[in-house]
Amino acid sequence: MLKKKIAFIGYGVMAEAMIAGLLRKKLADSKNIIASGPREERGNDLNKKYGIKTTTDNLSAIHEADVVVLSVKPQRLTEVMKGLKGIRSDALVLSIIAGANIKKISTGLKHKAVVRSMPNTPGQIGEGITVWTSSKEVTNEQQEMTRAILGALGEEVFVEDESYLDMATALSGSGPAYVFLFTEALIDAGVHMGFPRRIAEQLVLQTIKGSASYYQGASRHPATLRNQVTSPGGTSAEALYYLEKAGFRTAISRAVWAAYQRSLELGKEKPGHVDVEEEK
Q1: Which of 2, 87, 119, 225 is the most exposed place for a label (fewest CB within 10 A)?
Q2: In whole angstroms, what is the distance from residue 125 CA to residue 72 CA?
Q3: Measured between alpha carbons, how far is 169 from 260 in angstroms, rounded to an integer?
Q4: Domain containing 214 — which CATH number?
Q5: In a domain, 68, yes or no
Q6: Which residue, among 142, 158, 123, has the nearest Cα to 25 in the 3D structure?
């Protein structure tokens, strides 16, 4: 991996997380990484921070690349691919773009060795999880390279069925947003009761961290763990009654389903569609 040349097309948040992870784990040499994007000042920042090469010319970035990472917004993909002619025939194309299937990327680039993946934002600290799949033309060596690159973000899960990628986009890709909203709601509830915000934040953060760690170590169904802290007629039982009455489970299920449908739509999006999503 240290000798492999890696080109990032798009240098947003997730691209930076991958670059940082690769360098942190000594899986790549900074002199062999190049990132391309439209904003020169952003490129300069990455150059100063990581010592990598940067450019605003996508074509020059892919010229000698062993791995080309596609990390642009879904709505820009079609236009970007038009300018990516000349990817080496033996190179690996690795996409982290929501909704863009392997067929669309392979056709747009006229390139067969394509990996499609869906990471999530905790990858910025090496605690993410990425679901990925590959075209049949991806070699065993390229699969191992993929595991190394995605492993720099945290855990990685390979799936044979590409349809799982849109599901993963809705569940784990967008999942941190659901967790942050729930976290915010709990903190605000604490403040409403009278806690200073800093104490409410500390209580909620450690409760969420501790609960996740406890669940991971217990190897039991979450309903079993929930029952352990739900005494008959107690405070937890009262709170859970109101959550169920408000349709908490249904709201979560419908939200994830809506995200899944949106991921499918993104794969069919016409060029030029405007969306307010943050840059990946």
Answers
A1: 2
A2: 20
A3: 7
A4: 1.10.3730.10
A5: yes
A6: 123
pTM of the full predicted structure? 0.87
Q: For the chain, what is the domain count?
A: 2
Q: Binning pLDDT at 50, 70 and 90, where does residue 55 land?
A: very high
Contact 28, 50 (CB under 8 A): no
Q: Burial of 223 by CB count in 10 Å (0-12 exposed, 13-18 middle, 19+ buried)?
A: exposed
- What value does the CA radius of gyration of the chain take, rounded to a whole number of Å? 21
The tokens for 27 are 């899986």
| Residue 22 predicted with pLDDT over 50 | yes
* Domain shared by 17 and 155, yes or no: yes
Distance linking the first and last C-alpha atoms of the chain: 24
Three-class secondary structure of residue 275 per DSSP: coil
Range of the domain at 252: 175-266
Q: How many other CB atoms are there within 10 angstroms of residue 116's CB atom?
A: 25
Residue 272 has pLDDT above 60, yes or no: no
The helix (H) or strand (E) run that includes residue 33 is strand 33-36
- Which among 148, 173, 142, 161 has a CA at the least distance from the CA of 260? 173
Distance CA 225, CA 214 (A): 9
Last residue of a domain, one of 161, 188, 218: 161
pLDDT digits (tens, 9 = 90+) for 139-149: 999 999 999 99
119, 134, 161 — which closes off a domain?
A: 161
Taking alpha carbons only, the member of 29, 115, 102 closest to residue 69 is 115
* Per-residue tokens: 251: 């709201």
Confirm whether 278 is domain-assigned: no
- Where is pLDDT greater, at 237 or 270? 237
Bridge partners for 155 per DSSP: 129
Statement to judge: residues 10 and 144 lie in one domain: yes
Same domain as 155, residue 21? yes
3-state secondary structure of 144: helix
